Amino acid sequence: MTISFKEWNIEPILSHVGIHRRHLSQAPLLLEEASMDLDEANRFMRMFYLFQGTQQEAFSLELQKKALSIRQIFKINLNNEQEGLRVLAVMAPGDMMQNLPLDYLLERQGIELTLMFLLPNEALPDQYPEHDVTVFALGQSSANAPIIEKLIALMPHWPKPYVNHPKYIECCARDKTFELLGGIKGLLMAQQSRQKKSKMVGVAFPCTIRPVDSHAGEKFEKLWDQKSLDDYLSRSDDEEFYVSTYLDYQSPDGMFRKFRVALIQGVPYVSHLAISSNWVVSYLSAEMYKSQDKRREEAQFMRDFRIQIAQTFKDQFEAVYRKIPFDYLVLDCAVSKSGQLIVFEVDNSAWVHNTDAQELFPYKNEHMVKLMADFSKMLHSKTVSTD
User: Fold this and answer.
1) What torsion, rounded to 10 degrees, do the Cα atoms 223, 225, 226, 228 define?
2) Which of 21, 125, 271, 344 is most buried, most CB within 10 Å of its CB?
3) Which domains does the chain have, with CATH numbers?
């Protein structure tokens, strides 16, 4: 198979992180500017970014579909003073959770970012945008599976240095993750099984349940007995679920603490600590912005992370990297009551960012700047090692 590359002379569009940094009052102006873009594909893609994360999710995906029916290649404005390394992100159609949001990691890093969307019902192209390093940014999902399968077959012919080989993406499925990581000493994972609604068997209580391909705690519940399971299934239109043993990680003060770690070639970097009275913990639902005490604890946790977490669980993080050898991977973790590292989720497309309000979270900046600079260095190292 012959793969060729060409330059694409198209105007870059404002990134999602760029939109995120604009004040809400600027939304009408951004929408007006997008609607007047003479490049029709850019116009629809810009509007897709504007409506992502709003109550207009279905509408935003229709805008993306229109953009991709015209062109599958887009350049992204990362607010660089100058650009150097050229990065191609290979992506799939869908919302922000379907792909690694690279613009949040690469903003102001002096990198030129081009997105190429591959369509599930079409053959892979034989010509790609010219670039220096490829990032296979597709997340693990049923929707992305057909594209990932085609990419795996393509990889023996791929001539460019790359990040995150597609053959490991399926390792991020919850049941596959448990199979790979469940036996690591000092690491604790809930046993996961993927079950169909019509054939659900062997459920041990208490357990948790969520639909396959759900994210961010959507339809995620704890079940205590068969009655609660029957009730859950009767309320759900989904046909396939992940059923998991329930791990009690509640702290003595009654709170639940979950932290996000980015692994860059096996080295852990802290992203955040979420503290909540609810066992379903996400940074958004924890409402960290409302509590000075929570933010004070998060600041201390981030300062101590290198010793308290990275060094303590060095062997466990290295073992994860050996089992799932991604150059970049995100883990959602906690520490168990017995002092083990709990890993709840492994994701190659999770959101890591530096957009929290500086006046409330001044302690985050130094950690996120370090993480993003080292991610950029890793991309640069790919070109050096293959020269």
Assistant:
1) -50
2) 271
3) 4-169 (no CATH), 197-212+222-245 (no CATH), 256-385 (3.30.470)
